[in-house]
Known about the structure:
The complex is a heterodimer of chains A (about 375) and B (about 300).
Chain A: E1 3-13, E2 20-31, E3 36-40, H1 47-55, E4 62-67, E5 70-71, E6 82-85, H2 97-106, H3 116-129, H4 145-157, E7 163-167, H5 175-192, E8 195-200, H6 203-209, E9 212-217, E10 220-225, H7 227-232, H8 237-242, E11 249-256, E12 259-262, E13 265-269, E14 276-282, E15 287-289, E16 295-304, E17 308-314, E18 323-328, H9 329-334, E19 341-346, E20 351-355, E21 361-362
Parallel strand pairs in A: 3-8, 3-9, 6-7, 7-8
Antiparallel strand pairs in A: 1-2, 1-4, 4-5, 9-10, 11-12, 11-14, 12-13, 14-20, 15-19, 16-17, 16-19, 17-18, 20-21
Chain B: H1 2-34, E1 36-37, E2 48-49, H2 52-59, H3 61-94, H4 99-107, H5 114-125, H6 134-141, H7 154-182, H8 186-194, H9 199-227, H10 231-237, H11 249-258, H12 265-293
Antiparallel strand pairs in B: 1-2
Helix pairs in contact in B: 1-12, 2-12, 3-7, 3-9, 3-11, 5-10, 7-9, 9-12, 11-12
Amino acid sequence: MKVVLSELTKHFPAPKKKGEVVAVDHFSFEIPDGSLIGLLGPSGCGKSTTLNMICGLQKPTSGKIFFGEKDVTDLPPEKRGVGMVFQNYALYPHLTVLDNILFPLENLKGKEKLKKEEKMERALTCARLVQIEGLLDRRPAELSGGQQQRVAIARALVKMPGVLLLDEPLSNLDARLRLQTREEIRRIQKETGITTVFVTHDQEEAMSISDCIVVMKEGVAQQIGAPQQVYDDPANLFVAKFLGTPPINVFEGRVEKGRLYIGNEDVLSVSGAEDGKVFVGIRPEGFVPDEKGTFTCTLKGVEVMGRDVSIVAQHPLCGSGAIRAIVSSEQGRAVDLSSSSVRFRLKSEKVFLFDGESQERIRVK
Amino acid sequence: MERNQKKGWLYLLPALLFVAVFLVYPLIDVLIYSVQEGYNSASQEFFGWGSYNYSYVLRDPYFLQALKNTLVLVFLTVPASTLLSLLISLALSSIKKLRKLFQTVYFLPYVTNTLAVGMVFMILFDQTEYSNGLVNLILEGVGFSPVDFIEGPYWAKMLVLCVYTVWTVMPFKILVLTSALASVKEEYYSAARIDGTSRFRIFYKITLPMISPMLFYLVITGFIGAFKAYGDAVALFGVNLNAAEMNTIVGYIYDMLYGDSGGYPSYAAAAAIVLFVIVLTVTVINLLVRKKHVFNG
């Protein structure tokens, strides 16, 4: 089912102060049927509020929500046909796995009411889908975090919702399980073809499985697009900083007559950009160690990571303490470790310019 | 492990000693008293061993009256007070404004002296030369004839005693239940709402099982507390409870020891053992029920 958010806005009364906090600000977005969407942002950016408005636990201050063609803005959660997986799973601890999965089905009334065998069949189908059919008699406390997660997904899917919502689905899992589970979520989503929205603060998580990510900040959607596209073409400094590990390196620079300067060094040709102060964002993979390079940094060390090498350096105009450049191991070996400085050539497609004031992206040809 | 066990016992020792001296020893002593026939407390002599004390107590109309009163009290006030407390706690947890105020109001009886409460109940229920009491005033207002709640018919006196007991035990139950309700995570309710669970089903299927350990604790302690009732009856009907037909088992035991008809430690001991057996039985039944129906975290 297609989900359309139109000018969605949510205000909360500010605690202990007069006035209001704007949690979500005129957010419009059309989620295509059957896609997996990641709402991404730091804590307090309004992503969970957006999710809660989609499921109906919170009412928008203004704006509309449509499921397909149907306006569901004023519908209570139970009438929307959504399945939700909570951050802490919210499995009922006194019920067995099977009873947890059956719970939503037992709420059905009137025409929708199912026979006992039908309920069991649907519960078992869902259990098989998330591969927990061997755990049906256990209580949630007897399951690992990953298993609980699966039960929660099964419970959300059992009533065949039009939309599946996941709130920080991986935050309670350890690193290894996280990798595994995110693949699992992707698989289940593809198998069921259900429109899915999930919330996360972990950019890697969002990038790795989403068809489309929405980067949010202070209630405003900063950029919407396919993960790779957003990574390669960030709309502003915030988005550029938020995506990517290690994070993008940001320098204060200036544009003069189509040339980009960081300090006194002329590092790149940027035709089309107006003269003035800019922020320069350089992805870690945008550095190429080159003795003839025009960009000089203080060398701090080289970290070997196996497949590639991370060069740690410093620059007085870099906002954060250290610069990280990811290079291939051959290039890394070529760096003279006894030297106190390292010179780089920059890959122009990995260098982004942002306005010195508004921090919006400056496009260059 | 070995060393730790020794340490463990060492730490337990003070409490063990205390329990042994003040609970286990007296219990055994009472048991011995209860089977000594014709015990004379002045000469500390007795005729022989036997069950005469029990047969006397179990045939004593005062004891049977006390037993009946206690059972009525237990089986009326424990369910009533637990149910009422649950309703009030649910109401308290569902309001936001004035919650603190109401919590305080409901907790007040807990910190009020039994006898002070007794006096308030006198004003409410007692008939004097000047007034029929507040409750009678209301009864007359809606067209009933006044009832003497303190010296009148048995049911009226029992009613007052039950109301009094319920009222005094509720604050603690409300306190426990409101915190139990608050400990049920909001997420469960959100999850249930999204799944379209009706309010009643949410309560019955989620809230109730989750607070059931606390609820059960209140029922057990409630039963035990009600079996030991005595002070409340005294506060309402004075010390001569046998005459008022309002005695309780504990009251009977006390009277047998120190009352006007007192001086019979053997009968008192037998009555105490009977009470002990009853409380033990009820508690064991409770525990068996618990195993079947209560969810343990």
